Amino acid sequence: MRTIRSLAALAALAPTLLVAQTYTATGGGIPDDGSTIDFPISVAGLPQPLDTVAFGLETVCFTITHTWISDMELRLVAPDGTSVLLLSGIGGDSDEFAYTCLNTGAATAITEGAPPFAGTYRPMGQLGLVNNGQSGNGTWILRIRDTYAFADAGTLIGFSLTFGPQPATYYAPASTDLPIVIIRTDDGATIPNDPKIPADMGIIDNGPDEPNHPTDPFNDFNGRIGIELRGNSSQTFPKKSYGLELRDDFGEDQSAPLLGMPSESDWILSANYSDKSLLNNPLTFDLGQRMGRYAPRWRHVELWLNGEYQGVYVLTEKIKRDGDRVDIARLDEDDLAGDSLTGGYIVKIDWAQGDNAAGWVSDFAPQASQDGQVIEFLVDYPDEPLPAQAAYIEAYVDSFEQALAFEALDDTVNGYRHFLDVRSAIDLMLVNELARNVDGYRLSTFLHKDKASKGGKLVLGPLWDFDLAWRNADYCRGSDPTGWAYDFSSDCPWDGKQVPFWWSRFQEDPAFVDSARCRWEALRNTVFGVERLHAWCDSMAAELAQGASHNFQVWPILGTYVWPNPSPIPTTYAGEVLELKAFISARWQWLDANLPGQCPTTGLTDGVPAAALRARPNPFTDVLVLGTTAEFNGGPQVQVLDALGRDVTGQFATGPLNGTSLELRLRGPLAPGAYTVLMRQADRVARAVVIHTL
Q: N or C: more exposed end of the chain, with fewer CB within 10 A?
């Protein structure tokens, strides 16, 4: 008895032997209505708190039958509320996860596996986040959501959790050279599609050449926000996009500047999950800005959400009526007649939302309508238009469509030009075509209108949502550097969203076609220049090198198909950038050779290289000084052409400064935008593209 007592005493003093323990639970039916369902599992008897070193959660296993498993999103929720994404949107139309296990030490990521995923894989999210010092004893939840409602059904057969001495770890960079955004929802709540839920947000930006740490004090923004999910098909991706609304302590909208961008309350955090270059939207916005048009400002950032590192995001302005965004008149509740009713409006061509109360269906079928497709317009501003306002903008757009369809194309009184800012249509077309935007013209396409007293024609833009442009689409010839994006119906007449008839009709107007060619000629070696675009891509890739490395640690999708990536799929971030640059070159060459029309400046032999004409300041407001590297004896002839190829030289007074420079001074108002300046003498011609701003 004495010996037994001694052994017992020694055992009580020894460290607890940490061995793996597995807990199992049964499942049940998975609802097919887009809602979530929670399957609990009770855990008791774990010997110590969970950590990432000695003891913690190791593995999650489950078996699911479902008629389309890529509809599934699975999350694990710990007793303390920590939520981890296990998988989402994988497996296509297969019908089973056949005892699939997830472990951070697995050799293969779940995104690289194949149905029925029998075996052990690395999860999409960071399983080790639950090993955060919590006890682990309590109720765990396997949370399942069918992301595509009312189409396919399924059943969770069962699942298990294994805890042991080889716990899951998690990754989070200690520092980054990108700004850091940190968001914590109240009580760690899951972010819904709608409405926005309250949260805290802080931004850290220590400036150029200074590292940013997630533990640094917030020095750019520190306050309350509302946050919700953003996007349509992109919501099925595991890396989500978010809409943000800055708020005060009382929950009311509050404006603030973020990362040097003008003050506003509404912002977007764009995930760009399928765009592995992380550049498609920023590249497009940069083009728009350099063309002299408003396009959303943006900054690359790294995001932490509820303590979990989420990777690289693009923090960007939401398209919104504002003096620093879409600069049109405010429309108030009492603006119901006369000039006040005529603007401002922002309209979007897109999928209808809800009951489409703030929108309408066009009377005109799209370019191809083999299955009865329609064009849907949504009123984006005002948020809740009054009946008179909704009726006005619908009637105005309908009048434009009527004129375009039935009136003479060259009729400046009754034709479409009476309703449309043609230059904006040309700019939108050229960017959509250069990017070969598979969603161009038919989805996420904005137009806006100011008051009639302000010249209020329809203006197409701003540019938005180019994730699936720049080669990043494996359907409907989206990765083909040849062909026309506006001719989408020829490649995909079956698609539910087709291109408005506008764009094929524009091609029947010789003046439109020639003007588009002139605009291309003005931009082909400057804003659209291949060398400039390549240099921009290289510069941004260098700026993103560290952030991209962090991003693809937590989202190991390089070399892996993510809808709708085309082949080949590069295995490195540098390879993604190279593919983008190669597409830019090929697409530019095709457009340059195939864009129809003639421009008065086309075919000029430049006796003086274009670079030899200097223009400063550029952009300019009222005075432009031109200089050359070689003297134009006897005084050169100067000509200024707008984006449509029209001669606006008469708007300027000219005067020599010396033998190699002269001054152009505006005589009166000039529309903001890009202009081509030609300096001629005999057979010598120099040219420059300049941007006029107000």
A: N
